[in-house]
Design brief:
The chain is built from twelve helices and five strands. The longest helix is centred in the first third of the chain and has 16 residues. It has two domains: 148 residues, HAD superfamily/HAD-like (Rossmann fold), CATH 3.40.50.1000; 69 residues, no CATH class. It has a five-stranded parallel beta sheet, sandwiched between helices. It is of the alpha/beta class and 238 residues long.
Length: 238
């Protein structure tokens, strides 16, 4: 599903705002959840229950409404405890962060190609707690590609709240109809579209992303230039 797709009525693209997890970032694997659940003391056959509990408490943590300690205190199994400053709390936080930092290299390559073709306003808008936000900001791809990073823990609000998109639009410094928002969740795309952003519901295909960006790039020298843009972005997606 694509909302507000590029077309003849749209001006050239000046900025793009990307969600992280599910677009640039890969989803954790089953063994990641098993490892984290085991650290939190959960029995091996209750990993799915741990994952359900994890998400039930995640939104306030992402929005910086509760601390890392308070988040994990709700998830530790039985009598297990991880007080502030403890080795266990540090390990839980580090393991949680690490399992969200793997990236889809095909998507990263498309972003590099788009950046090289002149799309210099590329922003990251992610629901992420402070430890993950800090870790992402230290990555090479983030430092190279992103002109600005915005995280829920720093904004004090999660998507799809309008405040998150408004902050990203302001940071981009471009009109919403010249700005593309890319997210893997349709409700987030709908919220962005309500503020006038052009949107792409990402379903895992770097090729679709490359094609969409190619159609949205400024065309300086007619059809030949457009074809060149498409070719470079398509090659990056392979």
């Amino acid at each position: 599903m694509t909302l507000n797709p590029p077309g003849p009525s749209h001006p050239r693209l000046e900025a793009a705002i990307f969600d992280y997890n599910g677009v640039i970032g890969l989803q954790p694997k089953r063994h990641d959840w098993q490892r984290l659940a085991a650290l939190a003391g959960w029995p091996a056959d209750q990993t799915a229950d741990f994952e359900t509990a994890f998400w039930a408490h995640r939104e306030p943590y992402d929005a910086d409404q509760i601390s890392t300690y308070a988040f994990w205190a709700q998830l530790l199994y039985g009598d297990l405890s991880a007080p502030p400053g403890s080795a266990l709390l540090d390990t839980l936080c580090r393991t949680d962060t690490e399992m969200w930092t793997r990236t889809d290299q095909a998507v990263v390559s498309v972003l590099h190609a788009a950046h090289a073709l002149g799309l210099r306003k590329i922003l990251l808008l992610s629901n992420a707690p402070h430890p993950l936000a800090d870790a992402l900001d230290r990555t090479a791809w983030c430092n190279t590609l992103m002109s600005k990073t915005l995280y829920s823990s720093r904004l004090g609000v999660n998507r799809p709240a309008s405040k998150a998109y408004e902050a990203a639009i302001a940071a981009a410094g471009s009109d919403p109809d010249k700005t593309l928002f890319v997210d893997d969740r349709p409700e987030n795309c709908r919220a962005a579209a309500q503020l006038g952003l052009r949107t792409l519901h990402f379903k895992g295909s770097s090729q679709v992303l490359a094609d969409h960006l190619a159609r949205s790039q400024p065309r300086q020298s007619g059809p030949a230039s457009a074809s060149s843009h498409t070719g470079q972005l398509t090659n990056a997606a392979l």
